[in-house]
Design goal:
By secondary structure, the protein is an alpha+beta fold. The chain has helices at 44-52, 110-115, 117-120, 124-148, 187-195, 233-247, 264-271, 288-292, 297-303, 335-341, 345-349, 364-383, 432-435, 464-474, 483-488, 503-510, 541-544, 555-560, and strands at 8-19, 23-28, 31-36, 58-67, 82-93, 151-152, 170-172, 179-181, 200-208, 220-229, 261-263, 284-286, 311-313, 320-322, 325-327, 396-400, 405-407, 415-417, 444-449, 452-459, 496-502. The strands form 6 sheets. The chain has an 8-stranded mixed sheet, with helices on both faces. A 5-stranded mixed barrel has the order 1-2-3-5-4. Helix 4 packs across helix 6 (233-247) and helix 7 (264-271) packs across helix 12 (364-383). Bound molecules: aspartic acid (ASP). Aspartic acid (ASP) binds next to strand 20 and strand 21.
């Protein structure tokens, strides 16, 4: 800065830019400094060195801080008043030709950026995202450990399979036929820590789910994982509100607590989803009474069913173009309308639906169709220039009173846990658990931010008997796999509950990144590959031998066996 004028300084950094052997801009992650290359004979060696160094080379320069000539100041740079006149310089590592320019606005394909992730990490945006992430996590640690007495405990990542839930990665062991599983979350361990008397646990926990390729999921991701003894739902909610408020970055404004709360039923009825984006209106409204007086045949058909209703969303800001159709103000939308107005949309969104839109009573399905239409309409309105969802506004929302069980997607006659099998029933519905489990609400809560699920947790079952009933009688799972947990619940397990925040997603929303990959230093591709190190990789039959494993090659790959090639970026 100008306060340093006259001082001799030594700077280390990367060459961001170099111009005609006259000056260069040196970068480190504090910022940029302009360096003046000496032109006199006595410094010809320094001049040659710096003029020939390619951009992104790492250099040391030593020189004197001077004021820039009048009129040449750059008010946009914190160092814009000064420059450093070089005396001596050294190239510490010359940079070969770059596969892409390290500027945020010249983004090459993401596959190439992932292959050279260490170069992409030099960009301003990734630097900012990762540094902010680190600061937020540090504040979270402070809040939990220093202000609230939490204990940071690491739990194993080599464990065994858990019934239900996400698909887990397997890790072979040296015992023939036996495998570890990488945990989808530390759920069992954190509950066992409660039995162990560590009554306030937290962990920045790595979780693994082998769920294939989804644009905004990663096979390994991070949770802020929390569990507490002697707590109720409100206790966890207030803790999380305080945690987010404490760790919220100043530059993103402030957030107000307590967060509003909505029941699962309300969320589905008003927004058609269990993670409503409450930044804008366009709620689903029931217009059955209004339309009962109409003579529209398909509407009358729908209303003639016992619980038949007609629902609509109102798109207030005028006309939106949608597949060359106009939805005008106060558009009425039910499944029939959708089928008529958006040919193919209904069937592509609900390909398996057996419900013929105009002949069935409106249903949950209809609400979620309207929920998707609401979001699609918002996208279209925004594309047309209307701002509905200000990216600097953060709407947190608790969604509560979920059902404890939902029909399995693949076989609706069987039930699965809406959250996970350790979730306790709502206290007023406990007796229903034994008579009609489909009617039981749970003590499960989700945290939603701007229409994204950023956290979820529950008060847990702490009675072995109830836990066994849920596993065996309701979920029809083999409870033997969980015998250690069931046994632990019989040794004086305290009532307990917890939550996990999806850190990657939370940070990506805070920095307004298009993908969670932008807040992870070394993310995987859609197909779960590391495009830089080329993982997963082949191993030799000899390396597999101790694990008693043989690869049975699919026919197509057998032909190229022995010639494993680098992943084609096309297939990433
Ligand atoms: N383990 C749960 C999850 O990963 C969170 C919780 O119930 O605390 O979703």
């Amino acid at each position: 800065r100008s306060a340093h004028v006259g001082q001799e300084v030594t700077l280390y950094g990367w060459i961001q830019y170099q111009r005609q052997g006259l000056f260069l801009v040196l970068r480190d992650f504090q910022g940029l400094t302009q360096i003046i290359i000496p032109q006199d004979e006595a410094h010809s060696h320094v001049k040659k060195l710096l003029s020939n160094a390619p951009v992104e080379s790492v250099v040391r320069v030593t020189g004197t801080v001077s004021l820039r000539p009048p009129g040449q100041e750059n008010p946009k740079m914190p160092t814009g008043d000064i420059e450093v006149k070089v005396e001596t310089a050294e190239i510490l590592n010359s940079c070969k030709k770059l596969p892409f320019e390290i500027k945020d606005f010249i983004k090459k394909t993401e596959a190439l950026r992932m292959q050279y992730r260490y170069l992409d990490l030099r960009s301003f945006q990734l630097q900012y995202n990762l540094r902010l992430r680190s600061q937020i996590v540090m504040r979270m640690r402070e809040y939990l450990c220093n202000l609230h007495g939490f204990v940071d405990v690491e739990t194993p990542t080599l464990f065994k399979r858990t019934p239900g839930g996400a698909k887990e990665f397997l890790v072979p062991s040296r015992e023939a036929g036996k495998f570890y599983s990488l945990p989808q979350s530390p759920q069992q361990f954190k509950q066992l820590l409660m039995v162990g008397g560590l009554d306030r646990y937290f962990q920045v926990a790595r979780c693994y789910r082998d769920e294939g390729s989804r644009p905004d999921r990663q096979p390994e991701f991070t949770q802020i994982d929390i569990e507490m003894s002697f707590v109720d739902q409100a206790g966890i909610q207030r803790l999380i509100e305080g945690l987010l408020q404490y760790s919220w970055p100043e530059e993103r404004g402030s957030i107000t607590t307590p967060f509003p709360s909505m029941t699962y039923e309300e969320a589905l009825a008003d927004y058609g989803t269990d993670k409503p984006d409450t930044r804008f209106g366009m709620k689903i409204v029931d217009i059955s009474d209004f339309l009962r007086r109409s003579d529209i045949q398909f509407v009358q058909n729908a209303l003639s069913y016992p619980r038949g209703t007609v629902k609509a969303i109102c798109i207030p800001q005028g006309v939106v173009m949608l597949r060359q159709e106009c939805i005008t103000t106060d558009a009425v939308c039910d499944t029939t309308f959708m089928e008529h107005s958006f040919p193919g949309w209904y069937s592509s969104n609900f390909p398996d639906s057996k419900i013929a839109p105009s002949h069935s009573p409106p249903s949950l399905l209809q609400c979620s169709a309207l929920g998707s239409l609401r979001l699609e309409s918002a996208d279209l309105l925004e594309a047309a220039g209307l701002v509905l969802r200000n990216p600097t506004v953060f709407h947190f929302l608790w969604v509560v009173d979920f059902p404890l069980f939902l029909p399995k997607e693949e076989n609706p006659t069987e039930l699965e846990s809406a959250h996970h099998p350790f979730t306790a029933p709502h206290p007023s519905d406990t007796s229903l658990l034994y008579s009609d489990p489909t009617k039981v609400r749970s003590q499960h809560y989700d945290l939603v931010l701007n229409g994204n699920e950023v956290g979820g947790g529950s008060i847990r079952i702490h009675s072995a008997e109830q836990q066994r009933f849920v596993l065996e009688k309701v979920l029809k799972e083999d409870s033997e796999v969980l015998s250690h947990l069931l046994e632990a619940l019989e040794f004086g397990a305290p009532p307990h509950g917890g939550i996990a925040l999806g850190l990657d997603r939370l940070i990506s929303l805070i920095v307004d990144a298009p993908s969670i990959r932008d807040v992870i230093a070394f993310p995987k591709s859609f197909k779960g590959r590391d495009l830089m190190g080329n993982a997963p990789d082949y191993v030799t039959p000899e390396e597999l031998e101790p694990y008693h494993i043989q690869v049975s090659w699919p026919l197509a790959e057998k032909e190229v066996q022995g010639l494993p090639s680098r992943n084609s970026p096309l297939g990433w």
